[in-house]
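Posted in: Structural Biology > Protein-Ligand Complexes

Title: Requesting predicted complex, flavin-adenine dinucleotide in pocket

I'd be grateful if someone could produce the 3D structure tokens for the following input. Sequence and ligand are given below.
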Amino acid sequence: MKHFDAIIIGTGQAGPSLAARFADAGKTVAIIERSKFGGTCVNTGCTPTKTLVASAYAIHVARRGAEYGFSVGDVRVDINRVKARKDAASTRSSKGVEAWLRGMTNCTVIQGEASFQSPNSVMVNDEVLEADKIYINVGGRARAPEMPGIHDVPFLTNSSMMDIDFLPEQFIIVGGSYVGLEFAQIYRRLGSEVTIVEMGPRLIGREDEDISDAVREILEAEGINIRLNAKCISLEKRDAGVAVGLTCEEGPPEVVGTQVLMAVGRIPNTSDLGLDKAGVAIDTRGYITVDDQLQTNVSGIWALGDCNGRGAFTHTSYNDYEIVADNLFNADHRRVSDRIQAYALYIDPPLGRCGMTDAEVRKSGRRALAVKYPMSRVTRAYEKGETQGIIKICVDAETKQILGAAILGVGGDEVIHVLLDVMYAKAPYTVIERAMHIHPTVAEYLPTILGKLVPFA
Ligand SMILES: Cc1cc2nc3c(=O)[nH]c(=O)nc-3n(C[C@H](O)[C@H](O)[C@H](O)COP(=O)(O)OP(=O)(O)OC[C@H]3O[C@@H](n4cnc5c(N)ncnc54)[C@H](O)[C@@H]3O)c2cc1C
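-- Reply #1 --
Done. Output follows.
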């Protein structure tokens, strides 16, 4: 039986960096991958979708040429070239991860599916490997909920979307959250007729209501159909493709499309890992239970990234790696609970978010100040001709620390970091008011906006 200092299962956003830390420390490490190197982000998540967002944005701007003083004639989309660009970006990243891992001294790279045999051993390709420490970084996959007709019709997921080389004519997207909205705008801009079907009363239900409404306005302005309150979704095969039953409050009870994408959440890849043989505990949704330093209930086994349910982003998975590595190699007792919630929704314009939502502030019961400012009054936005969206910031009335913010607008995914870093510094928002920012930028408006704080209602 081969023995290693550490075994890592999965090459997502945490595993490869952790392998490098072990290898650099002169420890032997085996890293196991059953599919493409780099995991979800690189192959079926962030990289391909953001590459498609970029194509869709360029096409959108080209169509608006007259507003900027140029004409390109009829803008025609070549879906194969759009796909080729996306594939090139993903392949580059995936191959980069693989080459990095294979080039590491002390690191054994194994292609195959791993499953636990005991608390300190895993089986892969009929071989049993043993280690003092085992790190699980297996990620997740699209959820296909049990709904009437789901087994009778073909449907797409974020993974199979990567292979389509045609433009869906009438594209139905079930799920009005982050993944669904990005695909909706991408395909609308590429030329599909798009309908979003959402069970809840509004899009991105986790966000504040005004943000949901502003996002809806942005998407509807581009001709995306949005059907909310679809309480009873069902699928049925039709000659034209698929009918999605809705039972909505208003409008016809079904929409018919040529293709349907299910974007209704994700589940962890934990059911086929043999976790029971190692005694590793999972919660009712299949996420591996971990403590604040990502250790499972079994000594010597950790879980990082999407599979532990403590985050669902590339940066949370990478942050998990940093927490584990700093605890192990630097005796720096970093904890998951120290991190501040932050993410972006990559529609155009993007939404950058950090900290608490209004609902969370309200629930916390603290006295707060808040401000809301339209993007249409930001010089940089109207210079660029991209004035949709709003900026919202909420601060603690006593400590003056920022509690949360949402920047829906041009550059929102970048500008949010000004606020996020001040939050990490635990500094009062007044620091931003005294900073000199560069003109013309969206960030330069933050001091002005913070000067307009009023009691939070
Ligand atoms: C469409 C889409 C867009 C997204 N966009 C963004 C974005 O813009 N920004 C962002 O921060 N996040 C985004 N995400 C989320 C992000 O992709 C994930 O949070 C991130 O990839 C999770 O990384 P991870 O390290 O947990 O695991 P993953 O990246 O999922 O990697 C897990 C790896 O483990 C392997 N594996 C699983 N089981 C086994 C086994 N038994 N044996 C061996 N190998 C195994 C898998 O093959 C996979 O390669 C997006 C997700 C989707 C679906």
